[in-house]
Amino acid sequence: MDYNATTPLEPEVIQAMTEAMREAWGNPSSPYPAGRKAKDIIDTARENIAKMIGGKPQDIIFTSGGTESNNLVIHSVVKHFHLTHASEGTRAEPSGPLAGAVPHLITCTVEHDSIRLPLEHLLEEQVAVAKTWKQPKCPLIDGRKQAVTFVPVSKVNGQVEVEDILAAVRPATCLVTIMLANNETGVIMPISEISQRIKALNQKRAASGLPVILLHTDAAQALGKQRVDVEDLGVDLLTIVGHKFYGPRIGALYIRGLGELTPLYPMLFGGGQERNFRPGQDSVLGHPLLALHGNRIESLVSYRTENTPMIAGLGKAAELVTKNCEAYEAHMRDVRDYLEERLEAEFDKQRIHLNSRFPGTERLPNTCNFSIRGPQLQGRLVLAQCRTLLASVGAACHSDHADRPSPVLLSCGIPFDVARNALRLSVGRSTTRADVDVVVRDLKQAVARLEGQA
Asked: Is 397 noted as a catalytic residue in this protein?
């Protein structure tokens, strides 16, 4: 029950990848049949991914995964600011709104590390001094003295508040990046509302000669669990991660009006693939892709060529989401709700604290973050005693953080002693009620052993 960490490949995805390895081994840039076959597969995958999110195929760029997509967004926005406003800053009056300004970006305190760490890296390079904005009514800090604002989430609903985001805007603000769904609590962020307010604000900023504020959302956890539509969300950029929705471990980035409405600057330079925005696909995987060809194992792609089999798998996974998303969501919600009912029934409602259940807040249909109260029941200790359950205490990328409570839960107002006992269970497409019964029984036995009652 750790499907928020990763998911297995669907059989249809494996089949699509295998067929691409065998039949589409050519370079997609080559004119002969094997090359054209590879190009057709890539084009079809791009169309399937665009359809999954309600976008256009020409606005999709393939990447190695969510980390690269998120870094590419930050890199592009910062570079665009410097290219378009550096000369203005040198000509501007000393009192001008952007004179000497550095790009200012806004995010929230519960973002994934692939957003948080690049932003902190900007600060470590002494681009500016960071200040976490804590009180909505405090005097605003001059945008020229900070590059990143980390807006805290509400301790009432676990969401970032729209008004808090808007109040954090500075003259040099060029990006707001807020995840669509949190990976630990499952809380859905109000992206559509943020988008509407930023669009209205951008009209005023344009008249004042201030930079347009772009809106990015990391949709890694939401895709495959609920409907995601870029038009409804109103975002300029959206991150896609294949292994979160039963696809391979590559990703993609949606960019509204790529190169025209929304700027994108490559971080890599090479063979010109992906319209020069993201050349190559396989080098980031650590080794060239190998496949069986007759009785020989051959490398199918060079270090300048799109990774056709991985892209084929991502496209097939997206196609399955488009066809079955409502069924996936309904099934996972039923199993998740049954899990929470069983936990409260077996451990007593007073002993179970559902960390991801906030009044009036929408959350992912598959995520249950809870704590079993007790001084000896830290999450890691409970999991170590379980003989069947496979889960985590929070984000998989924080699995080496010993017994420190999740910063995400603490940010959401979960008390320290409760957060320390947290377990995150995330159900998948194949999880059943019978699986839940096994897991709850396993948890009860683990708790009994820890408390010396076995």
From this structure: yes
